[in-house]
Amino acid sequence: MTTTRDILHADMDAFFAAVEQRDRPELRGKPVVVGAPPEQRGVVSTCSYEARAFGVHSAMPSREAFQRCPQAVFLPPDMPRYAAVSRQVFAIFERFSPLVEPVSIDEAFLDVTGSKRLFGEPEAIAASIRAAIRSETGLTASVGVAGNKFLAKLASESHKPDGLTVVPRSRPDVLVFLAPLPVGRLWGVGKMMHDLLEQHGYRTIGDLQRASEASLAPIIGPHAAGHLLRLAFGEDEREIETDFEEKSISREHTFLVDCRNPEALRAVLRDLADDVGRRLREAGKFAGVGRLKLRWADFQTLTRQRTFPAPVCDDFTLRRLALELFEAEPLVQPVRLIGFGVSGFAVERHEQLSLFADPADRRDRDEQLCHTVDRLREKLGRDQIVRADRVGRKKEA
User: Fold this and answer.
1) Which of 3, 10, 146, 160 is the Cys-Cys partner for 151 at CB 3.0 to 4.6 Å?
2) Is it true that domain 248-390 has CATH number 1.20.1250.20?
3) Average pLDDT score over residue span 355-376
4) Residues near 113 by Cβ (< 8 Å), separated by ≥ 6?
């Protein structure tokens, strides 16, 4: 298998924790966990490699992380500081290629096919990027080099931290590289599919390379079977995407103690809807769909959504829909988490004319009021202007 593209996947090593250790020398060499404190509900955002040696990992409940590593230093995330470092890192990426696809705050794909005349072969470009990151930020990154995005990401994960891995380009060498890896490393293989594949004897990517679509389809379906076989042979035709548009905006709140008080739930939901509205207006968009999320005490989660009659961005309409969706659900258990989000974005509003009193005038007034409040909060501070129902209300401890 040959390819004419040169793709890098660059991934910062234990990014949040590494920034903390860089800025606080007394933390270097110690297990550091960034996320919720262990005495509260919440999860690990990331952790240092010293903490990972104890089995701590991202998305693990902080209480479990503390049980595994009680000597760890738990720190709250400092997103503005991490974002500032991320901008430095992405500025380095952009020196080597204009084709940069952000995956998250700390990782990206780069297409360096057109950069070789200026900067050398892909492996040399990857080494230069890693050196620049180390020199300018004091941090390390692992980089994978391959002919497509799937292989490049697998490569960057192969030798962490501070690794540089190149996947050979010939088809036999690609198959050898992939064969010993577990099937869980394939994109799209979640826990359920992983268990199904293992039950039928498919434990490694090499096992899939020896399978056929006809044998896999009855187990996981024809679409998934074709998808996994293409990946098992190292095939991935996706291009680098440089223009990303946010598909949804949402906010969630996890209660320290399961909440069974409907009025307290309504109050939090109003706040969430208002924050979603602020972010929606900040992005200059209108939402076509609103969505409620509830997670019960037993961790079962439900979502309910409804389409707006016309795309909206004002807090009043968002709040009203959020509460209507909430009121339609019986509180069968105490609530662990509540969330509200919007999607179906438009950059301008299109709506049908009404023969009756047109609600568009009222909606325009609501939007103008919300924009005015946004500007005042930006000038005076977000806590200086609050809804009347929030005045005097105590925040959850």
Assistant:
1) 146
2) no
3) 67
4) 4, 5, 6
pLDDT digits (tens, 9 = 90+) for 112-166: 999 999 999 999 999 999 999 999 999 999 999 999 999 999 999 999 999 999 9
User: Would you say residue 395 has pLDDT above 80?
Assistant: no
Q: Which amino acid is at 98?
A: P
d(CA 322, CA 352): 23
Q: Please report where in the chains the tokens 């004091």 appear, as a residue.
A: 138
| pLDDT tens for each residue of 305-319 | 999 988 999 999 999
The helix/strand count (H/E) of the chain reads as 15, 12
CATH T-level fold of 1-167 = Alpha-Beta Plaits (3.30.70)
Work out the percent of the chain whose per-residue pLDDT is above 90. 74
Give the integer Cα–Cα distance in Å for 66 and 33: 9
Annotation marks residue 107 as catalytic? yes
Query: Any residues with CB less than 8 A from the CB of 138 and at least 6 apart, and which?
Result: 22
User: Could you tell me the pLDDT band of residue 386, with boundaries at 50, 70 and 90?
Assistant: low
Cα separation, 312 vs 389, whole angstroms: 23
The pLDDT value recorded for residue 375 is: 78
CATH architecture type of domain 175-232: Orthogonal Bundle (1.10)
Q: Where are the domains of the chain?
A: 1-167, 175-232, 248-390
Radius of gyration of the chain (CA): 25
Q: List Cβ neighbours of 348 (8 Å cut-off, separation of 6 or more).
A: 286
Catalytic residue of the set 107, 123, 351, 378: 107
Q: Is 64 exposed, middle or buried (0-12, 13-18, 19+ CB in 10 A)?
A: middle
User: Is residue 102 left, alpha or beta, with left meaning phi > 0 and alpha meaning psi from -120 to 50?
Assistant: beta
